[in-house]
Amino acid sequence: MSAFGLVAITLVLLASLASSRDLPFFVKSLRDLHRGPPQLPMKSRAEPVTGWITQKIDHFDESNTDTYQMRYLVNDEFETEGSPIFIFVGGEWEIEPSMVKGGLWYDLAKEHNGVLVYTEHRYYGESLPTTTFSTENLKYLHVKQALADLAHFIETFKAENPNLTNSKVLLSGGSYSATMVVWFKRLYPELIVGGWASSAPLLAKLNFVEYKEVVGKAFLELGGQQCYNRIQNGIAELEELFDNKRAAEARAMLRLCSNFDEHNDLDLWSLFGSISNIFSGIAQTQREGDIEFYCNYLLSFDDDASAIANFAYYAWGSPNCLDPTYKETVEYYLWGINNLDESRAWYYQTCNEYGWYQTSGSSNQPFGTKFPATLYTELCSDVFDHQFGNEKIVENTVQTNEDFGGMEPEVENIYVTHGALDPWHPMGLGTAEGATIISKASHCNDFTSISSQDSEEMRAAKERLSELVREWLA
């Protein structure tokens, strides 16, 4: 292994994983799959203004008068009388200025003299309705409450700004916040004239086996058959070492901490789920050349199992040892109660509304067999409430699909885009349902301005959005 390989893989994979507390292996790997859109190159010199709006903690209980302060950012550098309002909807992350200072949404706002707004989702960033994230307090963390926040924001923002009283409103979002754009149009169609949903999962599903299939497809299509085989064979060999009472050999290769218990299924599942999530994070956020780079790294080793073991070790910054124990994950999420950790908030949403657990349930992927749905449902039960068993989580996903229509949301004037290599896209609309699928693109790859570096398909998708925005604002 070259020094370049060690340094490069460490820096690239760890860039987004800094934390005030040492994150367990499994929590780290999940965080990389549930983060905000990448920061955009900023064109504007204008500094967004931070605003706050009073929101009800519970929009659906008139007897509950408790409120909280929701944060938002505004860039009004193009504002005129009647300016359209271009809102980027925040998801399970902290909002930041680049989304209202650059990118395609910014360009469209500039073209139409629009006001740019970035709203923050309740329980994330600084928009905190409760002083702890206890399970009892998290009952107010639900997409219906967040959509009601957004509706109240639009009505209040227009009412408090005389220039914007009669303005048209457009929404955009990425990933979960793109889901919100679609569902907002379903629940509050009169408040917006149109929206753009990039990489929106719409079908709630507990056992999301398709996710790892697309991750494998990305490594096969961009990295080649030899790379795919190395991943598949290396993980299979490591599984076999644990299965055939050669755990000491596997532990040494993987540099596992002494508290790891290979006889505990939950520890084994956490280990192999975390390893698979390293590959998932690369595929989900990949740009041109990324997968090829990592495949070259993997193929630089003499054997398959060593390649995977070293890949996992260096991906997490060369610690003294890797700690993928299930107990550490549970303790971290419980620590998040009083420390208002957003990882705990998002995991609650998956237990209570969506599932979307990226498991090893399909044989059509190279990441092995040892991270079943039970890993995720057990975590729901141990971290939140024993009511969150498998049956209850399935009921919750069924309810979400009934509430919002699943793959048939029945909305108009929402432009849906997906990357063909985005692992989330199987839970979203396809071309048959009117979505635009961009080949070789992944998750939320289309927020940047139109440029000469865009593929022909990417450029066409962005130009189509521009045409639709002109129609909606005509």
TrEMBL record:
MF terms (GO), sorted A to Z: dipeptidyl-peptidase activity; serine-type exopeptidase activity
UniProt keyword annotation of Hydrolase present: yes
A GO biological-process term: proteolysis
Signal peptide boundaries: 1-20
Keywords from the named record: Glycoprotein, Hydrolase, Protease, Signal
Keyword Hydrolase: yes
InterPro entries the UniProt entry points to: AB_hydrolase_fold, Peptidase_S28, Ser_carbopepase_S28_SKS
Family label: Belongs to the peptidase S28 family.
Full protein name: Serine protease F56F10.1
Source organism of this protein record: Drosophila lebanonensis
Taxonomy of the source species: Eukaryota, Metazoa, Ecdysozoa, Arthropoda, Hexapoda
